[in-house]
Design brief:
Elements: E1 2-9, E2 15-22, H1 25-34, E3 38-44, H2 45-52, H3 55-61, H4 67-82, H5 87-97, H6 101-115, H7 120-124, H8 133-145, H9 148-205, H10 211-244, H11 248-258, H12 262-285, H13 290-299, H14 304-318, H15 323-328, H16 335-347, H17 350-406
Antiparallel strand pairs: 1-2, 1-3
Helix pairs in contact: 4-5, 4-9, 5-6, 8-9, 9-10, 9-17, 10-17, 12-13, 12-17, 13-14, 16-17
Amino acid sequence: MAAFDYKALTLDGKTRSGVIEADSGRQARQLLRERQLTPLQLAEAQQKTEAGFSAFGSRLFGPSLPTRALALITRQLATLIQAALPLEEALQAVAQQTDNDKIRGVVLAVRAKVLEGHSLADSLAEFPRAFPKLYRATVAAGEASGHLDRVMERLADYTEESQQFKQKIQMAMIYPILLLVLSIAMVTGLMVYVVPDVITVFVGTGQELPALTLGLVALSDFIAAYGLWMLLLVFAVGLVIFRLLQQPAIKLNYHRQLLSLPFIRRFSRGFNTARYASTLSILTSSGLPLVEAMRISGEVLANDFLRGQLQQATQRVREGSSLNQALAETGAFPPMMLHMIASGEASGELDNMLERTASYQARDLQNLVTVLVGLFEPAMLLFMGVTVLLIVMAILLPILNMNQLVG
């Protein structure tokens, strides 16, 4: 059976769209008529994706799933597979469980590929934006090892933890970002509309203005005259930088600098090493050989320079080096992580030690991000307070000078 996206008319003339499962387009239309719907458009979900986009285009424009939805789907699949339900029935149950037509269409399209004889990993690969590379590689490892139920359970835990961490950061950033936007809007409004009118009164008295007031007047005139052009310039510079970073050589050098800058280094290394440890832990515990797990784990990193270093580490392990020594030669992994991996190799419990290492790295990264977010809020308050204080002082100083002259 296949999934079909449809658009149809109800008896009262309203348009309804959704997803229906049928063996053919003809049967899909018949099912719609039995539901008292008049078909207007009907297209197989998988064919629509493949016909509308090339393999490259599907990566850019294909359907995607929110992290929350992916976590929920993974947990449902893991539960149903552990209950010994056949894979196609588990997928159908997940599709029926959701009220979102987009999610239902993706799941049913995956089920259609499974019914055609494809593996679950290959079926998921038809939607690269919905199911990331790490997700598909983990599923493939589970199918190859014969432990898809345990792998899906582990993958569900990982996906849920990632979603919760992202949600925590988003919630923590709402107030600081709102404060920043309001601060910029307030200061801009004062500089463009309030300060010029107030300063005009002092200029009319003929008194000599303080240096702070003169600087405020100059800044106000500059913002009023060139503020829009400055915004356009910032946008243009950002666009140029973005285009330059698409060049492989420039991007590689930029990523190398991120790993060496004093303040950014800890965050960049922490994020990439935590992601690498988590991925390697999941893949090795799924039964994937260490070299293959290292290759896949390196490819999901965001830093190109570190990815190249880990490719060399993978080659060293393939040639007989230990994992601990290969990772140590990259110079990017913290000593605690390397010692834990060395202990796991020595004791023959590398899988368990990698899992503990991944948990340690994830907690360390979460603590670092929490501290940075916590510092952002008082920094915005301080910025707004100092800015308003300078504006008030620039306005009050001429008034105080005028009172002294009168006295």
